[in-house]
Description:
- The structure holds 2 protein chains of 2 kinds.
- By secondary structure, chain A is an alpha/beta fold.
- Chain A is built from 10 helices and 27 strands.
- In chain A, strands 1, 2, 5, 6, 7, 8 and 19 form a 7-stranded mixed β-sheet that branches.
- In chain A, helix 5 (141-151) crosses helix 6.
- The longest helix of chain A has 21 residues, at 305-325.
- Chain A is globular, with a radius of gyration of 22 Å.
- The N and C termini of chain A lie far apart (63 Å).
- Chain B is of the alpha+beta class.
- Chain B folds into 2 domains: 2-46, no CATH class; 53-113, CPE0013-like (CPE0013-like fold, Roll), CATH 3.10.530.10.
- Chain B is built from 2 helices and 9 strands, in the order βββαββββαββ.
- Chain B has helices spanning 35-46, 78-86; strands at 2-6, 15-20, 26-30, 49-50, 53-56, 65-69, 73-74, 99-101, 111-113.
- The longest helix of chain B has 12 residues, at 35-46.
- Chain B is elongated.
- The A-B interface holds A 49-51, 61, 63, 65-66, 69, 148-152, 177-178, 195-197, 199-201, 204-205, 387-388, 390, 392-393 and B 5-8, 10-13, 33, 50-55, 57, 62-64, 66, 68, 75, 78, 82, 96, 114-116.
Amino acid sequence: MSDRQVDILIIGAGPAGLAAAIAARESGVGSVLILERENEPGGILRQCIHNGFGLHRFQEELTGPEYAARDIARVRDLGIPVECGTTVLTLSPDRVATCVSPANGFQTIRAKAVILAMGCRERPRGALCTPGTRCAGIYSAGTAQRFVNLEGWMPGRRVVILGSGDIGLIMARRMTLQGAKVLACVEIMPYSSGLNRNIVQCLEDYGIPLYLSHTVTNIRGRERLEGVTVSRVDERRNPVSGTEIEFDCDTLLLSCGLIPENELSLGAGVKLSGATSGAVVDDSLETSVPGIFACGNVLHVHDLVDHVSAESFRAGRAAADFVRSGKQEDSLIEVADGDGVRGTVPQLIRKNTDGDVSLMFRPSAVFRNSTAVVECGGQTVCSRKALVFTPGEMATVVLKKDVIRTLSGNRITVRIERN
Amino acid sequence: MEQIITCINCPMGCRMTVNMSPDGKVLSVSGNTCPRGEKYAVQECTLPVRMITAVIPAEGSAVPLSVKTSRPVPKALIRQVMDILGSIRITLPVCAGQVIVPDILQTGSDIIATRDLP
């Protein structure tokens, strides 16, 4: 059993891990190592062959593989090793990871700092409590995307999609272009959490109906899926009897939300947030365990990879600071979710932080003509107006470093109020 | 003649009403909040265009080649473009950016590879 030592260990070579590695190395850290479970770096971007990535970061609309290739090339130029086919099994609070790979067998790796960049996972059927038989033909949308775009085979011919998140919408178009018939996209909420652009270009362009306030209430089929029942739901999301619509289909795709993949974090004793299912972090992206940082979708689910990269660059720099200088003790300001706001990240701000802090959160409903307000001790310290806040789009308020220094309390609240 | 379309530029998703003349010219746009909406509405009602991305099987590779149009093509041609892509087989190696089909359907848009396949 080999025992290795690195300065910074990064778990995951998706967009988060790659950006964190680049920033860490560019900050002057000697040994940076990325471990990746798949056989190639790039993460989920590898299967996202559609375009629209990189508008903020590169002022271009790239496809997923093109976006990933830029970071992969930079990682290679910086000489940062990426060990693929390597699954991390455990991580301890004192930053010792165990992992396995066909190439190196079982290894123990000790790191001065660890960056968690494992991404997220799709909510599976079991978590949706959908009645019906346990037949073949039910996939999460991302699994189907992998089959079609990376493995080159179609999961089915007649498709119903449950959930109208962006992955579901993108797959509606993808399956249609590859010759499948997409019968319906079904959304339990009265609104779609997908981008307008995807509703227009993935559903309307192909005449695929979107059933809002509907859900799948039965699944039929013995060996293979034969059909699903879709029913309207009331305001409390309970199915309304008598509204059933039957669809004969061989495939059901689930696009019902993403959950940060934090098994390793839990094993390391990292405290998680109930609102984001990701780690509780301060503005340097450090978790509750000193020297363990988190960024990207393992921290909180993002809409845009550009934001993942920006966040991960900060995590990489912060981990480099930790390796150089150790933990800098500071008094902390707690960030709380107020009305209309869920899952604000970071949850803690260091009083003497060296930069402005972007507070990112998800609106809990659609708010038109509203203002996001940051309050401390009943006083507004910062605000941002917007024509619309929607749950489908992460919102940001930037808190200036000078404002943070002058805060009188040790707790701030973020909320949305209608104008 | 009136057409109702949803703006895709931002989360507002303005519902715009486009007034068209019988010969297909845009007479007026209403319901938009900003100038980007009007521009999109005019484009969408006169010559709607889309980027197309797809995968093509590659000889000797388990992973297919992902491709895109180098610029948006008329929406009406999407099916024809997909039919052409469905009939192509690629031989390796391929580099990202390589032209796979030049000037597809005389649109001025090339089909280009979006990944390396060594």
